[in-house]
Amino acid sequence: MKSTRISGLFERLRSEGRTGLIAYLTAGDPAPERTPSLVAALERGGADLIELGVPFSDPIADGPVIQRGVERALKAGTTLASVLEIAAEIRRRSEIPLVLFTYLNPVLKYGFEALARDAAAKGIDGCLLTDLSVEEAGRYVEMTRAQGLDTVFLAAPTSTPERLKLVAQYSSGFVYMVSRTGVTGEREKVSSSAQPLINSMRAITNLPLALGFGISRPEHAAELSGKVDAIVVGSAIVRIIEQNADSPSLETCLEAFARELRNAL
Length: 265
Hints:
With 265 residues, the protein is an alpha/beta fold. It is 48% helix and 14% strand. The chain has a single domain (5-264), classed as Aldolase class I (TIM Barrel). A nine-stranded parallel sheet has the order 5-4-3-2-1-9-8-7-6. The radius of gyration is 17 Å and the shape is globular.
């Protein structure tokens, strides 16, 4: 597969000797037309890659903060199709890598092939389907990669060695490692199950490794710097959006938070 913005990013991070910052936000929260400026603020603060979450009515992997963000985005009328339009708007002003973060249900409704084609056309670089079983992912991977998109899969502390091998086989761009069991959300400290998972994945793949779930503070970023290729921060960002949704200073707050994390890395 040819080089993508995602693989290019990780090559650059490696040459600079630094750990990347991946920022998640729910597209359409608090309103679809606001998302491009929130992404621009995160990029100014130092985010290296953006995960654009597609709001879905049953977000089983997400904790209460992101669930509320999803509700706000759905209430604002956000759909998978409108998230692709948001991506196109972001792409008009930025070359930051974009990963579409979604659940299987909206994709089945849209169609695998149609989504891969339209996502590529709108400037998306990769897709992560949180609840697609990697054992059944062959056809999806084929169609998605045919459009030049990366396919990112989740590896968890509970994954069997066989499943980790499949995750490594079917992932491109990077592997998203879930640092703990349970749902997304801010935590006091980095999970003790993170390092064994990092070690297991390093033993079977040369792909970049990104660690998420529970990472929400500069001190978490500092602790993980150099241990993984990137960290993923979501709930802490969505909480800032929630707390400042009606404020003109929302972008400034997001930029400042991204900068704190980036400096800690």
